[in-house]
Amino acid sequence: MHSHFQPVDLTKAYRLLNHGPTVLVSASHAGVDNVMAAAWACALDFDPPKVTVVLDKSARTRQLVEGSGWFVLQVPNAAQARLTHQVGNQSLFDQPDKLARIGVELARVAGFEAPLVNGCSAWLMCRVIDEPHNQQTYDLFIGEVVAAWADDRVFRDGHWAYEHADPDWRSLHYVAGGHFYAIGEPLVIDQGE
Amino acid sequence: MHSHFQPVDLTKAYRLLNHGPTVLVSASHAGVDNVMAAAWACALDFDPPKVTVVLDKSARTRQLVEGSGWFVLQVPNAAQARLTHQVGNQSLFDQPDKLARIGVELARVAGFEAPLVNGCSAWLMCRVIDEPHNQQTYDLFIGEVVAAWADDRVFRDGHWAYEHADPDWRSLHYVAGGHFYAIGEPLVIDQGE
């Protein structure tokens, strides 16, 4: 990855998801890579950081997560709104060249098999904490975040800097039917109050 | 509640949380009401709609949820940023008059014990699906949404209308240390693409 790809302290990793962005979920198993979109991802714990994500049984990416025991949650941005919608609406089952058609570029970090999607704002490398009842009953997966990175043009010193970055870096917040909202203005409450 | 308080079809209830807002969690048990803030709440299923929310063992509200088996997730707005921060940073354990001090006004809907916070944009009435392992190990609670309502000045016909409403209605997306972002502009992807 490029020079703006910087590690995030694990104790601050929850902040990458705390504002509720829609994420991309990527995984790899037995030589197959895939990426899907998920609005239902959430922080679960601070230290060690954990996350939840809902992965439907119809999703090819879910099989890769189950097969490998790993996934990456990454925070896409306004420049990737079309890509985010497309990876969420096309299945690798139907379109084996899905990623190439959409123009998804993957990268890897030494030591990890799961791929990262280029151009995102932040990435959380997660190891599945096996919870078969949650996975079968609720399609709910729990992961421990073992490494995290962010693009320092939009997240630095442990904080999102949306208000100082190009609007293309804004996070995406999916509603339904191709409609997203981008993240907006900061609102700061005086700590003494 | 007032004339703008309108029911939301349960099949659309997930849309109230899909964009990842910070929520208020309210509950009541044995004559005690409380309200807390939670950034870690998420949709879990469409139909019947389910949600997850993380409730720390130190939270008085958690005891009320465990005691009653019910909670309400509600979506606060920019006009309530200070209230949201304050209910998240004061404990009923320390301040028995917490809600009055902060100015939280509660309302009730016939047939339900759990209270709703006045002035929010949307409300989801949730019955706890008992999952002791998740609750003890991860502080993770699962609820089935049995009723939902929204203020039709900001959510109507199954859709958020932030772009047509006063900025005071924007949802809050908490980061850390009193810093929120408000939801921003709509981004719409052509469905044919």
Automatic annotation (TrEMBL), chains A, B:
Transmembrane segments: none
All copies of domain Flavin reductase like, residue ranges: 15-162
Family according to the record: Belongs to the flavoredoxin family.
MF terms (GO), sorted A to Z: oxidoreductase activity
Keywords for the protein's UniProt record, in alphabetical order: Flavoprotein, Oxidoreductase
Keyword Flavoprotein: yes
InterPro entries associated with the record: Flavin_Rdtase-like_dom, Flavoredoxin, Split_barrel_FMN-bd
Pfam families: Flavin_Reduct
The protein's name: Flavin reductase family protein
Cofactor: FMN
Enzyme Commission number(s) of this protein: 1.5.1.-
SMART domains from the UniProt entry: Flavin_Reduct
